[in-house]
Amino acid sequence: MSRIVFTGGRIFDGTGATPRPGDLAVEDERIVDIGSGLDGDESVPVDGCTLLPGLIDCHIHLGLLGISNVQDRLQLPWSYPYFVIPRNALATLRCGITTVRDAGGLDAGARRAQQDGLFPGPRMQISLALIHQTGGHGYGSWPSGDRLSLLTVSPGLPDGTVDGPDAMRRKVRELVDAGADVLKVATSGGVLSYSDEPHHSQFQRDEIDTLVLEAAASGRWVMAHAQSTSGIRNAVEAGVRSIEHGMHVDDATLELMRDRGTWLVPTLVAVEGVLSKRDLPSRIIDKAMAIRDVHREAVSRARDAGVRIAFGTDCPVSPHGTNLRELAHLVEVGLTAEEALVTATSTAAALLGRDDLGTLAPGRRADVVVLRGDIADVSTLRDRIEQVWMDGVRVV
Known about the structure:
Blueprint: E1 4-11, E2 20-27, E3 30-35, E4 42-45, E5 49-53, E6 55-60, H1 70-74, H2 85-93, E7 97-102, H3 108-115, E8 123-126, E9 130-131, H4 165-178, E10 183-186, H5 205-217, E11 222-226, H6 229-238, E12 242-245, H7 251-260, E13 263-265, H8 268-275, H9 282-305, H10 325-332, H11 337-343, H12 346-351, E14 368-372, E15 385-390, E16 393-394
Parallel strand pairs: 1-4, 1-5, 6-7, 7-8, 9-10, 10-11, 11-12, 12-13
Antiparallel strand pairs: 1-2, 2-3, 5-14, 14-15, 15-16
Helix pairs in contact: 4-5, 6-7, 8-9, 10-11
């Protein structure tokens, strides 16, 4: 394979260090050298640009269509979402996101198709389903008594409903057998579920403990949709890898998260996505409005407490392709531009257990984003992406 050298740009390596001038050499899908005056078989001039590591979205739903009313969803054949996965994946890739942790709705077939090159998209870790209790977040109860779960149930995407430790153990094994890389659980209510509240706690500790232990037996980690104070605390004490959303986290739990190394994946942009949709039930809009400021304040406190924050968006709650708005929201709550980008690079890679991603350094996979200009204004990042490379191949 030829040696490709990016010349004339500046390098943000993903560690938080100040960008510096330098050339970057790529060979055999890996970064092989960083320095000045490098030569190679092919030169890619990037004068006036900054090189970033490929970005990582730790909470996304590539298999979902977006927020719509119930009638719209009921009129779609069950297989319809499979045909929009390539579109969603490409929109994500065009944001410079080369790796994702899918938080439900994507099956092993989609992961395999991307790996085999059937469509361009980011590499994927998948959770398949959201593990939830009867009547809990994700169950899909409506006042009529009908049920329409948040995630489609189909071959390859098991129903996530669980009640009791024994059923939890079986569900973990079923999901691992179906190809899950990570397990996702709802330990609290949520905004998009009609029948509960974000401050409600869900699942008992013995159920969550069983989940984490059974997942660990298969070499998997657990991510927890957790918005209530007790739901967050229960998940952290049980040993989950990351807290998703985390609106009502208290200071004592933030300290515990810091001490245990538990990540927070805020998804601030998701709340804005809900508030932008006026065809949703007023109850859901009201819940989003009620937690918006609480959510932002919680992320600010988490940053000040030294909790590791990883980038995640919950797209398509906000449409696919708008992912990088999350960076601007992180800056608004107190992170610097460098800190915000670290959440989407080295910190996100550490959360996913991928030490070959997230930084620009020799030996790392050659995922490179060419950004016109500098990193100071993250609010315009999406519009300034010139090129995206993945494993040393230009994909955008």
